[in-house]
Amino acid sequence: MIYWEEDALKDRERIFEFLYNFNPIVAEQTDSLIQSKVETLLEQPYIGVKRENIKGRLLILPDISMLVPYSIDGTNIRVLRVLHEKQQFPFT
Fold first, then answer.
1. 3-state class of 16 per DSSP?
2. What angle, 0 to 180 degrees and rounded to 10, lies between the N-to-C axes of helices 24-39 and 6-22?
3. Whole-number Å distance between alpha carbons of 56 and 41
4. What pTM did the predictor assign?
5. One-character DSSP codes across 19-50
6. Which domains does the chain have, with CATH numbers?
7. Could you give the C-alpha distances from 70 to 7, 22, 38, 73, in angstroms and in order?
8. Chain segment 11-45, per-residue pLDDT in tens
9. How far apart are CA 29 and CA 10, in angstroms?
10. What is the rounded CA–CA span in Å between residue 66 and residue 44?
11. pLDDT for 39-83, tens place per residue?
12. What letter does residue 53 receive in the DSSP assignment?
């Protein structure tokens, strides 16, 4: 099962609202892409890369320049954040 942390949900909402102001269709497409890519983690939980300086793994979405840090607990995926690749990460 996929669990979205509150910060990740807020990130998605902020991204959607930002894009919606420019192009509602792109906002919908971007959010759908984020959702579908995260759902692939149920079948391939280790597709994200492991980085020494972050907890968990990092799903990279190059088509939309997004990073999705997540953790794995058995069969559960916990989405921690949804970030644009230009954002400073990890947070200190």
1. helix
2. 150
3. 13
4. 0.87
5. HHHH-HHHHHHHHHHHHHHHHGGGT-TT-SEE
6. 2-84 (3.30.2310.20)
7. 12, 29, 9, 10
8. 999 999 999 999 999 999 999 999 999 999 999 99
9. 18
10. 18
11. 999 999 999 999 887 789 999 999 999 999 999 999 999 999 999
12. T
